[in-house]
Write a structure and sequence with these properties.
By secondary structure, the protein is α/β, with parallel strands linked by helices. The longest helix has 22 residues.
C-alpha cells in the first residue's frame, strides 16, 4: 500500500488510548483496505490535530487501534471563512460542501431564503444533516485537510441576520455596480472572521439585500462572469484568501 489511510475521530484522544472504532471505520480499515494488525495509519480530531494510530485488532465489526503519538498539533489560521449558502436544488449542496472543505472554509450554514426552491420537511433534516456531515469527513480525508469544517443547522434567513455580530465582516456578492471585492477587503484590513453570503439559484431578493445591509453586510461584486450558486461561494472564498495574502 503506497498511501497512509486517514480516519476522523469524533473526540480528541489521549496518547496511549486504545480506541474501539465504530462499524463503518472498522469495515473501511479491515475489509475495504484489508489492513492487518500492527499496521500504522493516521487519524485527525475535531480540532485538527493529527495522530499516528496502530491497528491492534483488525475486526470488520469492531476494530481497535492505539494512539501511538501526536504527529501535528491543530493548525492556527489567521483567516477564518464561513459560507452562508442559500439552500440550492437537489444534490448541489453536496458539491458545495466538498469543494468548500477543499478551499478551506471553516463553517458552512445552509439557509432557507425567499427564493429557495428546495424546502425539506422538518423530518428530513436530520437525515440530510447526517449525510452532509459524512461528506465533510470524506472530503477532509481525501484532500488531506486536518480541521473539520463546522456544519451549522439549517436556518431561516431572519435567524441568520441575528448572527451577523459574530463576524468581523459579512460579504454579500450581488450586483456588478457594487464595490469590488478587493476594494471592500482593502477598506476592512483588520477583518479576519468573514462570512460570505451566497443566494440560491434565483439569487437574493431586493428585500433580503436591504435587510442584510441594514445589519452591516457589505454588498460587493466578484470580478468574474455570472456564477452558478454552487461555484460562487467557492470562488469568493478563494479570492478572499488571495486578496488577504496580498494585503498582509
Amino acid at each position: 500500500m503506497s498511501f497512509v489511510p486517514r480516519i476522523f475521530l469524533k473526540e480528541t484522544p489521549a496518547l496511549g488510548d486504545l480506541i474501539t472504532l465504530d462499524v463503518s471505520l472498522s469495515h473501511y480499515l479491515a475489509t475495504v483496505l484489508r489492513l492487518a494488525e500492527n499496521f500504522k495509519f493516521t487519524a485527525f480530531d475535531p480540532q485538527g490535530a493529527e495522530y499516528e494510530m496502530t491497528l491492534e485488532k483488525a475486526d470488520p465489526r469492531e476494530a481497535r487501534a492505539r494512539v501511538s503519538r501526536m504527529t501535528q498539533e491543530a493548525p492556527q489560521k489567521p483567516l477564518w471563512l464561513a459560507l452562508g449558502q442559500g439552500l440550492p436544488k437537489a444534490a448541489k449542496l453536496d458539491l458545495i460542501l466538498r469543494q468548500g472543505t477543499e478551499v478551506g472554509l471553516r463553517q458552512m450554514i445552509p439557509i432557507l431564503t425567499e427564493r429557495s426552491v428546495s424546502r425539506p420537511e422538518p423530518g428530513q433534516w436530520d437525515h440530510k444533516r447526517e449525510r452532509w456531515q459524512k461528506i465533510l469527513v470524506e472530503a477532509c480525508r481525501q484532500c488531506g485537510r486536518r480541521d473539520l469544517p463546522e456544519l451549522k443547522p439549517l436556518v431561516e434567513w431572519e435567524g441568520l441576520l441575528q448572527s451577523f455580530a459574530d463576524y468581523d465582516l459579512v460579504l454579500m456578492p450581488y450586483e456588478k455596480e457594487a464595490p469590488s471585492l478587493k476594494g471592500v477587503l482593502e477598506s476592512k484590513p483588520q477583518s479576519r472572521r468573514i462570512l460570505i453570503l451566497i443566494g440560491p439559484e434565483g439569487g437574493w431578493s431586493p428585500k433580503e439585500v436591504e435587510q442584510a445591509q441594514a445589519r452591516g453586510a457589505c454588498v460587493t461584486h466578484l470580478p468574474v462572469p455570472i456564477l452558478r450558486t454552487e461555484t460562487a461561494g467557492i470562488t469568493a472564498a478563494a479570492m478572499i484568501q488571495f486578496f488577504k495574502s496580498e494585503l498582509s
